[in-house]
């Protein structure tokens, strides 16, 4: 099950990490930020691990071998497998499924059901290690995160992402910002990005 930390008031923002299980730094940083608060955020909801099985296994995919960020029910979803890299320097040769059908995976279904329930004004998805703020809408929040982190604001990551959460958000009028941590030591990431996340959850 996906664990959700709910806002005390109306949910204006949903922040989630760990949809790719081999990006545990996103969960670690979001957890540390959440634990620095005196209580639940006033207007933000949090999911520390959108792919709990993958996080435990250290795999990009879930327990079914599916890249969850290619399983969202979008017009550009593709049935054919996708590939990813073991590390940023390696060739993209790790083969992952995209699901039996768009939205087939329980984690995706749970996340979409939560968004339908909470109706947040925006969603921030934490990823690594592309070192950018990906915001197709060029929103004030995206610009603020870029300015605060010193990372570039981009409109896309430079390659196709069929069936991604960002594609789903664009098709359904849900503003999505992908906050991509840089490749850095864990304590450097915590020093540089946990304060930004605390501001995001409280601001």
How would you describe the overall organization of this protein?
The protein has 203 residues and is of the alpha/beta class. 33% of the residues lie in helices and 18% in strands. The strands form 2 sheets. The chain has a 6-stranded mixed β-sheet with strand order 2-1-5-8-6-7, sandwiched between helices. Strand 6, helix 4 and strand 7 form a beta-alpha-beta unit. Helix 1 packs across helix 6. The radius of gyration is 16 Å and the shape is globular. The mean pLDDT is 95.
Instruction: Give the strand order, joined by hyphens, for the main sheet.
Output: 2-1-5-8-6-7
Largest sheet: 6 strands, mixed
Quaternary structure type: single chain
CA-based gyration radius: 16 Å
Helical/strand content category: alpha/beta
What sort of overall outline do the alpha carbons produce when their principal axes are compared?
globular
Count of individual helical segments:
6
List the helices and strands and how they pair.
Layout: E1 13-16, H1 24-35, E2 44-47, H2 52-57, E3 82-85, E4 92-96, H3 106-118, E5 122-127, E6 130-134, H4 140-149, E7 153-154, H5 165-172, E8 176-182, H6 186-202
Parallel strand pairs: 1-2, 1-5, 5-8, 6-7
Antiparallel strand pairs: 3-4, 6-8
């Amino acid at each position: 099950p996906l664990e959700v930390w709910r806002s005390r008031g109306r949910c204006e923002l949903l922040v989630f990490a760990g949809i790719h299980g081999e990006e545990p730094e996103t969960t670690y940083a979001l957890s540390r930020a959440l634990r620095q608060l005196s209580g639940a955020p006033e207007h933000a909801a949090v999911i520390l691990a959108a792919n709990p099985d993958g996080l435990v296994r250290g795999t990009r995919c879930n327990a079914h071998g599916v890249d969850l960020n290619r399983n969202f029910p979008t017009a550009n979803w593709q049935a054919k497998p996708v590939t990813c890299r073991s590390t940023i320097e390696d060739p993209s040769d790790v083969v992952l499924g995209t699901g039996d059908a768009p939205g087939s995976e329980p984690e995706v279904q749970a996340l979409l059901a939560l968004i339908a329930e909470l109706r947040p004004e925006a969603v921030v998805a934490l990823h690594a290690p592309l070192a950018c703020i990906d915001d197709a809408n060029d929103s004030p929040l995206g610009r603020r995160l870029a300015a605060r982190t010193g990372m570039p604001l981009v409109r896309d990551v430079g390659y196709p992402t069929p069936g991604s959460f960002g594609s789903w958000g664009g098709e359904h009028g849900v503003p999505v910002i992908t906050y991509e941590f840089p490749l850095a030591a864990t304590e450097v990431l915590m020093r540089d990005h946990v304060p930004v996340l605390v501001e995001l959850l409280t601001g």
